[in-house]
Amino acid sequence: MFAKDPIINLENFQKSRVYFGYYLGFNSFDFKIDYRTVAPDILVTKTTGFNVGIVADLKLQEYINLRFEPGLYYSKRNLNYPDSYFEETPTPSDKIREVNSTYIHFPLLLKFSSMRTGNIRPYLLGGVSTTLNLSSNSKSKDDNAEQRFRAKSWTTNYELGFGIDLFSEYFIFSPSIRGVFGISDELIRDKDPNSPWTGNIESLKSRAILINFTFH
Known about the structure:
Elements: E1 18-35, E2 43-46, E3 48-61, E4 64-68, E5 71-80, E6 96-113, E7 120-133, E8 154-167, E9 172-182, E10 201-215
Antiparallel strand pairs: 1-3, 1-10, 2-5, 3-4, 3-5, 4-6, 5-6, 6-7, 7-8, 8-9, 9-10
């Protein structure tokens, strides 16, 4: 693949109008939090989650493709609240909210590829996505006063990233890294407008780093 004059693998692959694939990968989700008044930050503890999904790719032009990459993403974040958010001394369970999220993610992306050099072809990705959070608790009547953190079921995002196509004899392996940036506020406020968990939050938006390994 990296030889000076390599054998060109899958030479006719780029002529395909439509092709499919699948991906496996990892994610690290975070929250971007904007506040209504100046206060100590709510600290977000992140963990590494996983992704799995499929790819449908439509060739629009020699170097531009439209991609649909629906997938299932699992992530976990903890929100750690400062003592100053509470009127009385908080218990350890009051100060932390576990946010376990199972997402069905629907990205629609444009892929901008460079010219192929041997069996290597770098590319850039960009587009928009919508996400269904199956663990949002959006229909729950309980809120943080009953230890129940709630978020909206549907959110929208924009995405930017880059990757590289590596052409082997039988398939294309495409590692990529991508940032996901939430556009819409996803927090559902507690019934109490002065709630220590939601009262000072102007907006709460997900953002993430995705590392995917795609096979075509």
